What we know:
- The longest helix has 21 residues, at 2-22.
- The termini are far apart.
- It is built from five helices and no strands.
- The protein has helices spanning 2-22, 33-48, 55-68, 71-74, 89-92.
- The radius of gyration is 15 Å and the shape is elongated.
- By secondary structure, it is mostly helical.
Amino acid sequence: MNSIVREDAILKTLYLLFNEGYNSSHPDILIRKDLCEEAMRLCLLLTRNPQTNIPETSALLALMCLQASRFDTRLDGDGNIILLNTRSETVES
């Protein structure tokens, strides 16, 4: 039971780390790729360990990969956020 609670806490922490990078609270940097990449790296390490290679870990890593694939479509050339309803569909496909 304790290991399940710890795994859940670890996965939540990694999700929060990734989320802070994906939607940064820093006033000058909208996306902090360094935080996202670190969360993904740590999650990947968990998938390589037999004790933490559980479906939830793989699902979290998949979610992070999906969101990270959209980095370049979230900001314009000046680093400003591009709202979802104004994004070009051709950019995301």
